[in-house]
Amino acid sequence: MNDHSPPTPSRGCLDTPVLKERGQHEVFCGLTSIVWLHRKMQDAFFLVVGSRTCAHLLQSAAGVMIFAEPRFATAILEETDLAGMADAQEELDRVVHELLARRPDIRQLFLVGSCPSEVIKLDLAKAAERLTVAHAPNVRVLNYSGSGIETTFTQGEDACLAAMVPVLPETQARELLLVGALPDVVEEQALGLLEAIGVGPVRVLPAHTKAEEYGVGPNTVFALTQPFLGETHAALIRRGAQHIPAPMPFGEEGTTRFLEAIAAEFGIGADVVARVTEGPRARARAAIAKVSEPLRGKRIFFFPDSQLEIPLARFLTRECGMDAVEVGTPYLTRDILGPDLALLPAGPRISEGQDVDRQLARVRADKPDLTVCGLGLANPLEAEGLATKWAIELVFTPVHFYEQAADLASLFARPLRRRAALRVEAT
Length: 427
What we know:
Elements: E1 18-22, H1 34-40, E2 44-50, H2 52-62, E3 72-76, H3 79-82, H4 88-102, E4 108-113, H5 117-120, H6 124-135, E5 140-145, H7 155-164, E6 175-179, H8 184-197, E7 202-205, E8 220-224, H9 230-238, E9 242-243, H10 251-265, H11 270-291, E10 299-302, H12 309-319, E11 323-329, H13 334-343, E12 349-354, H14 356-366, E13 370-373, H15 375-383, E14 388-390, H16 393-396, H17 405-426
Helix pairs in contact: 7-9, 10-11, 11-17, 12-13
């Protein structure tokens, strides 16, 4: 007797056992996220409460000139403060009062801890409450941790947005909330596509200014544009908002499925999405095909770094013809990454967390064509003959949605082209 039942849909890597890694970490700290967040929120100021080391990190990472008026700074705690021997609360209050008096344009002030509170002996949550009362209603003071002991570098954005969610007003309106800091040009593209499809009203988190903020409530639905927003996702759920599971909008396929999931939530069919996106989809496919030739058939290994690894592996395997050997990620939140895991072709090892020594042993044994890793590992691996891609560049470069799909593929193709050119020169 023939079985005419429909075939079981592929589950990709959803059922792949996850290798749990717990060991030495090689990542940037969450303070790094201030570099892009301070550009996104135009009336916000980020005051890092920490040491001179933290000040030097931000100065170097952001490339800020000494005569500039940036929207972040460091309230430096000397050794006596770190030991709990000085009244750091009074000193912090003084710094904040002076800052706000000099910068009346500030409407949101973030106190960012560079060390756990038990290290700096300063409760920034209580300080934020006290300073909010002192400077209300003109300035809202919030706090979050950017400590490298507690966060990886993309978790800084997650902690920042999660701190904002509880203070957003309540609303009963049926609205879409697009969550995640995107470059302005990419955000405009996303909003334009959603408007053309018929989805609205659409709000964004973070908003450019405090005055542009909106409410959150039981009729709010939200879609994440970044896979590392686990705490923000949980905070929005606690406020009653509903998450729209979808692949991250990387590449032509990811962007299309992302838009289809949102459209379906608003009762709009996939045929409408297809009609509206026909031009951008065709451009993205053609552009990806043009730049991804060096990637086809090549093997890639992801060290855990940014939490972008699983959606990027899905894009590179399905749209660029690569083979994933191992896909490591600092944290694997299935409520967020499930749709990407389902699309990622079965085969690679999936690992969560980091144990650098074990992962270095595996990458040396695998000898992939391309290794995605942090800055601290890239040079040693290059010296051993492995082509590498800096993970941090994937966060700072516009890579979301259709118009940036080819740029995303190019970021991975470039090191392979460079390696091929060096071989030619050597001969």
